[in-house]
Backbone:
């Protein structure tokens, strides 16, 4: 029996498929974004709604199954979620998720089990209204106001971005600070937040070859995304500023704090949080 | 005790403290880390009566030379690095020494040195220490996260002059009267079993055939994050509408998704990369295949100039292979435990 075929039942607006024998992926259909936009004209950000479903899934799967030693990781991505598990643990019967019976058979493979977990969780979240989803992220998402030193030595690539976008440095800074960004997920390296919401006018291509060592705390633009490098690492994004250290104790903009192994959790930002950049010279 | 147990005389290249790695932190971008050849580290620990997840050393290239200030039992596994246990007198190590082989445990006396010369063919050697290395647990593991600079010994690979300590052990087995014991290890193979990846429909039948039929080699630019492969260029199909995913940048870039050790991704350069234990947590390149968990160690132990192929298997076969591997390891561990007890 081919397991790949056996475990692919019909699911609306999302696909659940194995990544490998120890990982299963839920991927929200790209076209469902368009439907969402038509359904709800008041919501200007349909992609965010889909990502809110991912956050909801993470939270509720963690709540229901977080204590299972066989569940090793829940990794949110861009409109997708990867669940990593121990493939050798076979479950005798089903635990309940929102009182939905999962399986009637006596036992099943770990892959089949986790696939069904994801599918039934998706059926739950797909029923939620946009209002419920909005309030969900509103409740859990913390707003961080991060002061940034823009341009000059702190932002060596500011001139390149200005040249590429045709905007002045002032306009770039204003546009970069005007938006409240959503932390879609943390990935790539410890504490690195994938932010959503950058003004399309700021889109600037990455460097042809990555810079070998980017200073931690660098604020940068790469393609249609903006982000902060938490660690010294190679990086190909255009650096427009540096997180500033301020005397304001409420401000957490101490560079090394984006990722700190002594803190629980170690990443300052988590998916669902919000960020606003503030130019430090106005503080 | 004030004197350190082990002094690093020569650190070798990319020698790092590793255990079985950390899980449950990927949503914060924290990678798995841990021994690339997990079986080797587990066997080395078992030979000493250690728990299988105790921290030891992973050695990517010699020469590594350790000086022991106190007597200690060690075990060597993984690639054979032409090891010797040597007496050391007044700044001049005796060239005589006793050979020490991979797959065996050895007692080392105070003042003796352990030298791992290296293996011209590559691969990785593991050293376990009776009691395990005394390293702080960070995010539930003692493994070194080299890129993020935490875990292990000061968040980095070993350098000359480092000092390491060993944890005291309270397990009942008394190893003072023991003889060296050995364990048969898995033989490295040149076929790597893999599952077709979730994005394999982005590749034409011809490109897929090229991937599964080609002879591949590891690039010298490989490290614990990933192996770059030398072989044919594999390109995704041109038509953008084939990407059934939210497209972000280039046609060959998908919406970022979770990746795992074993993921074979294809950047737009067309040169395949196999992600390993230190690989990033999310990526945006198409995944053409995933190396099965049971064969991850084979990638870690592939020689530098060895040609290898990917062998396409099903998920059921991947699970069977992992089950067999676990059962064999369990039997071996039971046999070792019996041997250790009966020697007492």
Residues:
């Amino acid at each position: 029996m081919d397991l790949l075929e056996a475990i692919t039942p019909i699911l609306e607006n999302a696909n659940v498929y194995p990544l490998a024998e120890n990982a299963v992926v839920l991927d929200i259909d790209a076209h469902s974004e368009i439907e969402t936009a038509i359904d709800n004209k008041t919501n200007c950000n349909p992609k965010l709604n889909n990502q809110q479903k991912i956050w909801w899934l993470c939270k509720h799967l963690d709540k229901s199954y977080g204590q299972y030693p066989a569940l090793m990781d829940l990794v949110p991505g861009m409109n997708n979620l990867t669940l990593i598990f121990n493939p050798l643990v076979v479950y005798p019967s089903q635990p309940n998720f929102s009182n939905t019976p999962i399986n009637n058979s006596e036992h099943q493979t770990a892959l089949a089990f986790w696939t069904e977990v994801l599918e039934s969780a998706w059926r739950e979240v797909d029923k939620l209204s946009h209002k419920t989803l909005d309030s969900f992220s509103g409740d859990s998402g913390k707003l961080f106001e991060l002061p940034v030193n823009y341009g000059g030595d702190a932002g060596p690539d500011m001139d390149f971005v200005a040249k590429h976008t045709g905007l002045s440095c002032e306009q770039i800074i204003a546009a970069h600070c005007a938006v409240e960004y959503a932390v879609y997920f943390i990935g790539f390296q410890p504490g690195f937040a994938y932010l959503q919401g950058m003004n399309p006018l700021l889109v600037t291509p990455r460097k042809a070859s990555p810079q070998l060592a980017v200073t931690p705390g660098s604020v940068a633009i790469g393609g249609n995304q903006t982000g902060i490098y938490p660690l010294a690492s190679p990086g190909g994004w255009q650096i427009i500023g540096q997180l500033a250290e301020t005397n304001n104790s409420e401000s957490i903009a101490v560079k090394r704090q984006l990722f700190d192994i002594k803190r629980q959790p170690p990443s300052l930002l988590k998916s669902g949080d919000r960020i606003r950049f503030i130019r430090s010279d106005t503080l | 005790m004030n004197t350190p147990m082990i002094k690093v005389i020569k650190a070798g290249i990319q020698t790092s403290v590793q255990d079985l790695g950390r899980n449950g932190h990927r949503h914060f971008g924290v990678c798995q880390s841990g021994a690339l050849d997990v079986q080797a580290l587990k066997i080395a620990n078992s030979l000493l009566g250690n728990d299988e997840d105790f921290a030891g050393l992973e050695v990517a290239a010699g020469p590594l030379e350790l000086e022991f200030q106190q007597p200690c039992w060690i075990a060597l596994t993984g690639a054979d690095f032409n090891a010797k246990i040597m007496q050391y007198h007044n700044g001049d190590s005796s060239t005589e020494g006793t050979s020490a082989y991979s797959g065996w445990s050895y007692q080392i006396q105070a003042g003796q040195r352990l030298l791992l010369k290296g293996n011209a063919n590559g691969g990785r050697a593991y050293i376990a220490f009776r009691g395990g290395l005394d390293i702080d647990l960070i995010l539930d593991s003692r493994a070194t996260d080299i890129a993020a600079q935490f875990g292990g010994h000061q968040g980095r690979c070993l350098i000359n002059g480092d000092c390491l300590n060993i944890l005291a052990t309270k397990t009942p087995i008394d190893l003072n009267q023991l003889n060296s014991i050995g364990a048969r290890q898995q033989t490295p193979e040149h076929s790597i079993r893999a599952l077709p990846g979730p994005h394999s429909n982005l590749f034409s039948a011809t490109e897929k055939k090229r991937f599964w039929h080609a002879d591949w080699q590891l690039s010298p630019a490989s490290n614990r994050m990933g192996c770059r492969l030398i072989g044919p260029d594999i390109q995704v199909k041109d038509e953008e509408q084939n990407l059934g995913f939210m497209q972000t940048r280039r046609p060959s870039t998908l919406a970022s998704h979770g990746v795992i050790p074993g993921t074979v991704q294809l950047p737009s350069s067309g040169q395949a990369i196999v992600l390993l234990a230190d690989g990033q947590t999310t990526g945006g390149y198409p995944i053409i295949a995933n190396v099965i968990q049971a064969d991850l160690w084979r990638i870690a132990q592939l020689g530098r100039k060895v040609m290898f192929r990917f062998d396409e298997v099903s998920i059921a076969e991947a699970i069977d292979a992992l089950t067999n591997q676990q059962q064999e390891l369990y039997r071996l561990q039971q046999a070792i435990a019996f041997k250790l007890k009966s020697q007492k």
